[in-house]
Amino acid sequence: MAYSTLLVEIESSGVAVVTINRPDKLNALNAEVIAELDDWFTQAASDDTVKGVILTGSGPKSFVAGADISRFKGLGPIEGKRFAAYGQQVFNKIENLGKPVIAAVNGFALGGGSELALACHMRVASTNALFGQPEVNLGIIPGYGGTQRLPRLVGKGIATELVLTGSMINAERAFAIGLVNHVFEPTDLMEGARKLLHSILDKAPIAISLSLEALRASDLPLSVGLSHEAALFGQACATEDFDEGVDAFLNKRKAAFKGR
Ligand code: COA
């Protein structure tokens, strides 16, 4: 599928850089962007040339400034629920990709933009990034996962303040509350994201995928999450990469993982 709102570049290292490309609208999420993200992430799950993803926004000013507000005019309760449920489904697809996804937040990450970054496994930000859930200013609430993922990441108290006040926080504050992993100068952002992703792609791919799945279960009650972790640990023990990793360590050589 040819995309009109996404730029996609798959590098030889397996890093896919996906750029939401509506800079004149600060990369706001219209129906087309959501459908194209749905399509791309569906395909990427089974595309062996894609080992990990960096998701960013086009232009110097914005990652994603939210859902496209022009879509809200006249939205009724049935369509509203459908709108939120579909966005959540697409964002779940990102979270469940089975390969690491890093949001490189290069400016505004507001509303659906903040929620999109939250659906990624990690976030890095440029010093000019601004995060916020301003939905209450429009008489709505976050609908793409913000009331669920934000408190899980930064704690309920801070998430409540952000959602109820609609106020923006800068990159420094986002780092302090654990919303972003690293902050870079704007010119260093993509390189920083790439470096982080490469440090993961060195490792055994199935172990990375199983780790992501186990970490996802940290939302569940501890006893359920722990038994899930034990089952996934067992799966890792069935891989060739496990034999290779242990043998390489014992023989003081670098492991050559095959993703099997
Ligand atoms: N939906 C649709 N269009 C949006 C948008 C959004 N979420 N955010 C920005 N845009 C558009 C603006 O309407 C403007 O379009 P125009 O040039 O055709 O008028 C363009 O992007 C540039 O935005 P502008 O407001 O002129 O930039 P700014 O630097 O003055 O302000 C923001 C930037 C992010 C503070 C401001 O655009 C804003 O508040 N956007 C809405 C954020 C929001 O509420 N998001 C959550 C939605 S649920």
Compact description:
It contains 10 helices and 10 strands. It is an alpha/beta fold and 260 residues long. It has a 6-stranded mixed sheet with strand order 1-2-3-5-7-10, with helices on both faces. A 4-stranded mixed sheet has the order 4-6-8-9.
Key descriptive features of the protein:
globular, 2-enoyl-CoA Hydratase, Chain A, domain 1, Lyase 2-enoyl-coa Hydratase, Chain  A, domain 2, six-stranded mixed sheet, 260 residues, alpha/beta, binds coenzyme A
Reconstruct the topology from this structure.
Layout (H helix, E strand, L loop, with lengths): L5 E5 L4 E6 L10 H15 L6 E6 L4 E3 L12 H19 L5 E5 L2 E3 L1 H8 L2 E5 L3 E3 L13 H9 L1 H10 L2 E3 H6 L5 E3 L4 H13 L3 H12 L5 H16 L2 H11 L10
Parallel strand pairs: 2-3, 3-5, 4-6, 5-7, 6-8, 7-10
Antiparallel strand pairs: 1-2, 8-9
Helix pairs in contact: 1-2, 3-4, 4-5, 8-9
Description:
- By secondary structure, the protein is of the alpha/beta class.
- It folds into 2 domains: 6-201, 2-enoyl-CoA Hydratase, Chain A, domain 1; 205-250, Orthogonal Bundle (Lyase 2-enoyl-coa Hydratase, Chain  A, domain 2).
- The protein is built from 10 helices and 10 strands.
- It has helices at 31-45, 77-95, 112-119, 146-154, 156-165, 171-176, 189-201, 205-216, 222-237, 240-250; strands at residues 6-10, 15-20, 52-57, 62-64, 101-105, 108-110, 122-126, 130-132, 168-170, 182-184.
- Strands 1-2-3-5-7-10 form a 6-stranded mixed β-sheet, sandwiched between helices. A 4-stranded mixed β-sheet has the order 4-6-8-9.
- A hairpin with a 4-residue loop joins β1 (6-10) and β2.
- α1 (31-45) runs parallel beside α2.
- The two termini are 29 Å apart.
- The relative contact order is 0.11.
- The model has no long low-confidence stretch (mean pLDDT 97).
- Bound molecules: coenzyme A.
- Coenzyme A binds next to β6.
